[in-house]
Amino acid sequence: DTVKRAVRAGDGNILATAPPYTKFLNSGVDFAVISAGMPSADAWVQEFIRHDIPCVSADYLVEYVCKPGYPLDTHVLFKTNRLANKSLDKLLKNQQEVATDNLEASEDDDDDDLSCAACGSTDRAEVMLICGSEDGTVGCGAGMHIDCCDPPLDRVPDDDWLCPKCEAPKAKKKPPRGAASKSRGSSKQRR
């Protein structure tokens, strides 16, 4: 079970747990996990080696996933270290490519996708207000077009803007006696 969890945690798949393994020999298998005590003369071990599939103990995968950077050579079997290093390098390269692709995708997903809380549209960012104060102490970050406000606004306000949900609790608080009431502060405009 530990090996299965480690393989899944490492985004891997277990293709087979018992012979015959023939259909997997040419399918790009990264490692053959060999049980302790299996002799190197075993027919399947020889077949794995003949197909350049490194033979490792279960601890190889567990430590690879659970202890990154931990030396793995002690878990490589039947002198397949060169093959294991080649497979590991391939996996690490694939992980880096996936991480780079994910980073590029997240950089492409900028804040222009904020939708209007009233109409749901993500367009017209130039007239989209964002609920909150400049210092970030109040507001929920919701967006709303100036013409979707109730009542509609003619232009983007110069002060902070709060959506109706955030403005309501603020309106309930009464200013101390003798204090002047403050207007809504500067607005944030989508760029």
Q: Please provide the ordered H/E string of secondary-structure elements.
A: HEHEHEHEEH
> Number of helical segments?
5
CATH architecture field of the largest domain: 3-Layer(aba) Sandwich
Taking all Cα atoms into account, the compactness measure Rg is 30 Å
Mean pLDDT: 82
Main β sheet profile: 3 strands, mixed
Beta-strand content estimate: 5-15%
What structural class should be given to the helix and strand makeup? mainly alpha
Shape: rod-shaped
Instruction: Kindly report the CATH topology of the largest domain.
Output: Rossmann fold
Structural domain tally: 2
The percent range for helix content is 25-40%
Low-pLDDT segments, ≥5 res: 179-191
Pfam families: PHD
Protein name: PHD-type domain-containing protein
Domain PHD-type: 113-169
Keywords: Metal-binding, Zinc, Zinc-finger
